[in-house]
Amino acid sequence: MKIGVDVGGTNTDAVVLGMNGVLGWSKTPTTADVYSGIVSAITEAIADAAVESADVDCVMIGTTQFTNAVIQRRSLVPVGIIRLALPATSAIPPLTDWPDDLIGEVGRNTHLVAGGYEFDGREIAPLDEQSVAEAARAFRQSGLKAAAITSVFSPMNGDMERRAAAIVQNEAPDIEISLSCELGQFGLLPRENSTIINAGLSRLSCHVVRAFRRALQELDLNAPLFISQNDGTLMRADDVQRYPVLTFASGPTNSMRGAVYLAKIKDAMVVDVGGTTSDIGMLRNGFPRQSTNFVDVGGVKTNFRMPDVLAIGLGGGSLVREEGRMVGPDSVGYELINRAQCFGGDTLTATDIAVVGGWADVGDKSLVRADQATIKAARASMRYLLDVNVERMKTEASDLPLLVVGGGAILVDWPVQSASDVLRPEFSSVANAVGAAIAQVSGEIERMVNLDGANREAILDDARQEATDKAIAAGATAASVEIIEMEQLPINYLPGNPTRLRVKAVGDLPI
């Protein structure tokens, strides 16, 4: 039996999942200290399931705490930045195109030193160890507690980054160090951005992971703890403390995976309707389609493994104006239960329209002040928003079913263009927690290779085996591991026409 938890900006959801599906669930407000909200949610879910804490085999938690910290510019620490690249890359320094307010949080503590690799593993220049040591001493004198080290093509060879980290640690033992080679994927600037953000979240990650562990201790849950990462799989709590950026976008991913699990299908479009926005995505074989573009987080381009999700300004708290002709993007958000008319407030929202229109049963529809013309116009506005944007997210001519989940799923009760059917699965309001509970663990590799007729199959077999070994090292049982993605992208603009190879394996936990 597993417990899945999703810690959102407004609500903390929990489910108890057994062999036959959801046994119990709860939805409680997220608290400032994080842990007490988790304690309340899990306690209520266990009570609803009528089970004992001793029966729980594993706890999986998804969180938006780290994403929100970057977007809201809070809980970040200043970062010392070292790029190993000279004499290359000096034309575009670190923090290029970053928003000024975010730079104000992490600071401009940047040092470019000699080092780095070419795409084929040859050195651009030997590592300038003296300059690295000087940078580390400058960080220590400035009182910095976090550092980010990035080298050109370090996913091919991370030795220089690791040597630089050892030098920094020797000069400044108290600094938490993030290495770009451990965050993966090619593309210097987005990878460097990701590494800087990761370092900036180092203090918050310690606080959040401690809160998770404290919650389990208070609940007397002696079960392994895993955290959702943004590709729909799990990582150990210790790894989250080191790599908090890998949890970005885990919320939409969990919701989408939870949706197809609840609906007992594997291929579908999904819309996760929240209080302010709706996230639209597509799943194949039970996993979200991944974005092929660099992902913007808080105004910064990153290389995170993000699901391809389109967010639109339609949610349960969306404001209804101009006699229903305009719905959203402004929203009352988490204040819905205080400000919506159906709950005794004075603001007309999308939820009010659904209630007074007769397709949602919450609050008191007699309190809603909207005539039939406004109801009709607002419904048409919401329908148009969803129809157009579901069509935008399609990648093929055939229609797939559309699964509607999330706390605002009550808004949608109409047929949607480009969808073969519209389904609202049971327990759809806590699909995000269900997605956390069913998640697997993964292993992934990415590298530049030269594929020719003689070595092609051997190289691919080695890559499959390495990804499989990484999944097993992450906690998967060997018998359950399968390769779910193998991407081969020829890079024709580089000498020798190398291929960018990415392989991903997933497997089940032994519980």
Explain how this protein is built.
It is a single chain. The chain is an alpha/beta fold and 511 residues long. It folds into 4 domains: 1-73 and 202-248, Nucleotidyltransferase, domain 5 (2-Layer Sandwich); 76-200, Rossmann fold (3-Layer(aba) Sandwich), CATH 3.40.50; 311-432, no CATH class; 439-507, Dna Ligase, domain 1, CATH 3.30.1490. The protein contains 14 helices and 23 strands. The strands form 5 sheets. Strands 3-2-1-4-9-10-21-23-22 form a 9-stranded mixed sheet, sandwiched between helices. Strands 11, 12, 13, 16, 19 and 20 form a 6-stranded mixed sheet that branches. Strand 7 (146-151), helix 5 (159-171) and strand 8 form a beta-alpha-beta unit. The longest helix is centred in the C-terminal third of the chain and has 22 residues, at 372-393. It starts with a strand and ends with a strand. 50% of the residues are buried.
